[in-house]
């Protein structure tokens, strides 16, 4: 029967797969024969045009942070074209200990169109390079993912990769994604509102720390003070970093205090982490009898967390 403009299209023949039934974001006309989308990103949930989503695993300064990008494209990105995803705007991030990638292919809850088997997304740091790796470009703070197998159009993929957070506090930057080889222009990724990427808090002691105790409550007794602490930020030697403890009212060093003369005392734990001077011999601490203050200079790396 000839179609009349403005009339409803005829139903599909019996047994024909309803390829757009339940597909997120399907619109009137998408099922028309040879209706072809342009090369673009698709929102993983709505199916409309958008770049995708990004979140992260930790706000701690200097920590290894897992960023997860969720995205989809209208057309395949092919190995033959040396196609790649590029995630940029990763402000102040540093290269992680290992440039590994965990990738998956997922189906949105609302997707019930034509079924087909989807393998995970295989990516590499270079065209044809080792799988499950990425290239980190320090100068542009961007991560590059070359496809090792052609992607499926409309399929939702995730890329989870590690970077190292900056040491200083910062707000989450504007992170973008683009493709190269088969180019899609740079677009902003939507941020996870609870875990915005590369938002970094100031260093602090977590709840419950530091913990301090003593060995003796007796008057004039030698008293071993034990302090246990954690910090969210790593501490490094040769950076002028030190820890100060104060409030030891009435206390004095074991040998007595000389007015105006700080005293070097030996650290009983022998951890090798602290010194009485910046870059000095380890396992010593500096006691100031006038201010009742103890200073410990960091002379070995301390991990955050």
Tell me the major beta sheet. 6 strands, antiparallel
Residue ranges: pLDDT <50 for 5 or more in a row? Answer: 1-10, 16-23, 109-113
If you average the pLDDT, what whole number results? 84
CATH domain fold name of the largest domain: Immunoglobulin-like
H/E element order: EEEEEEEEEEEEEEEEEE
Describe the protein's architecture and organization.
The protein has 305 residues and is mostly beta strands. Helix content is 0%, strand content 27%. The chain folds into 2 domains: 53-191, Immunoglobulin-like, CATH 2.60.40; 204-305, no CATH class. It has strands spanning 53-56, 64-71, 84-88, 101-106, 123-124, 135-137, 142-147, 156-164, 176-180, 184-188, 190-191, 211-213, 226-228, 242-245, 263-266, 274-275, 284-288, 293-298. Strands 3, 5, 6, 7, 9 and 10 form a 6-stranded antiparallel sheet that branches. It has a 5-stranded mixed sheet with strand order 4-8-2-1-11, with no helix packed on it. Residues 1-10, 16-23 and 109-113 have low confidence and may be disordered.
